[in-house]
Write a structure and sequence with these properties.
It is a single chain. With 161 residues, this protein is mainly alpha-helical. It folds into 2 domains: 61 residues, Orthogonal Bundle (Arc Repressor Mutant, subunit A); 79 residues, no CATH class. Strands 1-2 form a two-stranded antiparallel sheet. Strand 1 and strand 2 form a beta hairpin. The two termini are 44 Å apart.
Amino acid sequence: MTDEQIEHRLLELAYTTNVTLTAPAVAYFAPCRIEDAQRVLDHLVATDRIAMNVDDEGSITYTIAGRQEITKPRPVALAIRHGREASPALAAVLSLVIPGAGQAYAGRPVAAVLWFVFVMVGYLLIIPGLFLHLLCIASAAGSAHRLNDAVERHLLNQPAR
């Protein structure tokens, strides 16, 4: 692998991941020998394109000015995929069929699991299960309404294009 190819892979590594830049990391990602990766890194440091850092333990890492931390994207609720608003009626129907399904639809997976468990345990006692199921349905519709409100607020706060 040529030095240009190693440099290209280094930049790809730097701007698509949060990996600490070291010679072994570059060598693994490139793939090339560690010595080749080190030579490219040394050249980039010598030309002031990256900075070399040595910590108290003697470990050498490299930083690129302007490199930003990459965050994981939050999963989009099923209800608002493809730009559609959440339907409170659909959320209620889903929770009617399967307790907690409406909450999952509205992007609340933890609430979905909890509602499912509580309603199923309530059904062991019959009457509390029916009551909990009705609460679950109402909660699902409310979750869809809140999701729409949050989306609407987010869209209103966006600068005009």
